Amino acid sequence: MELWLQETLAQAVTYIPKLIAALVIFVVSLYLAGLLAKVLHNILRRREVDPEVSLLLVRLTRWGLIIVGALVALQQAGFKVTAFLAGLGILGFTVGFALQDVSRNLVSGVLLLLQQPFDIGDLIEVQGYLGQVEDVTLRATELRTLDGRLVLIPNADVFTSSLVNYSRTPRRRIEIDVGVAYDSDLTKVHEVALDTVRLLPGTLEEPAPWLWFHTFNESSIDFTLYFWVDTRETDIFQAKSTALQAIKEAFDREGIEIPYPIRTVYLEQSQG
Q1: Residue 202 within a domain
Q2: In the chain, what is the greatest distance between 2 CA atoms, to the nearest angstrom?
Q3: Is-contact 168 231, C-beta < 8 A?
Q4: Number of domains the chain is built from
Q5: In CATH, what number is assigned to the domain containing residue 129?
Q6: Which residues pair with 123 in a beta bridge?
Q7: How many of the other CB atoms lie within 10 Å of CB of 109?
Q8: pLDDT (tens digit, 9 = 90+) per residue, 124-177?
Q9: Which terminus of the chain is more exposed, N or C, with fewer CB under 10 A?
Q10: Whether the model pTM is above 0.90
Q11: Are residues 178 and 145 part of one domain?
């Protein structure tokens, strides 16, 4: 009995430091989990992330750190958690394989919310669709196209694809192709076209508007007109429409013809 008591006391003396260390590790993990959760919450709030998504991310972070701390504490206390982790890994692999598309979209949605390549209401082009962002859920990005369709694009596709954010591009270049008649004064055409677009709302002085004549077409001499606009002052599509109308009116006033295609037909009269 005395020998058993001595062995028990010896084991207790050996185990108590491990138990204390395990408790310290667990308490520290609780503190760090709470601290990092608060930091993440503040970051997400400044980025104006959806409150439900923010709450989910904060909880996942907090409980993930607590679980890791608990496992480390158990390992320190002498418990064999290797077998448990192996079983957990197999289970996680099985579930992850079954839900790989869901998990990919979930992770991609979280990364999109954190990196913020676009905001709600931005005009973007991705996966061949052009439209305004209406929402970013944990599964898909909702895009309202210019013709009114609501397109749901999986977050994984949005995250891995090339994306153009037109709302974050304050300067855009507009190109307009025009053809004038062969008897036109090209110097006058050059001056009238440039003077017209310079006066349009939102047209930038720098880079300055310019044009170049490039093709002798069947019925016209063709040129392309380039000018830059400030998208904060004018819509890109409206700016091009306004420019086309203004150029047509200016050419009509100055007697500059935009010709129709012309065909000359020769008829040979047979003698007989």
Answers
A1: yes
A2: 144
A3: no
A4: 3
A5: 2.30.30.60
A6: 132
A7: 22
A8: 999 999 999 998 877 889 999 989 999 999 988 998 899 999 888 888 999 999
A9: C
A10: no
A11: no
- Both tokens of 105, joined, read 């979209």
Distance of alpha carbon 180 from alpha carbon 260, whole angstroms:
10
Q: Which two tokens stand for residue 91?
A: 């289970």
- What gap in Å lies between CA 36 and CA 258, rounded to an integer? 67
Of the candidates 13, 25, 20, 19, the one whose C-alpha atom is nearest the C-alpha of residue 78 is 19
Tell me how far the alpha carbon of residue 178 is from its chain's centroid.
Answer: 34
160/228 Cα distance (integer angstroms)? 30
The answer to whether residues 216 and 237 belong to one domain is yes
Is residue 228 classed as helix, strand or coil in its secondary structure?
A: strand
In the β-sheet with 210-216, what is the strand arrangement from edge to edge? 171-180, 221-230, 210-216
Q: Which amino acid is at 271?
A: Q
Point out the domain boundary residue: 98, 130, 149.
98
Tokens 């935009």 belong to residue: 258
Tokens 């590790």 sit on residue = 25
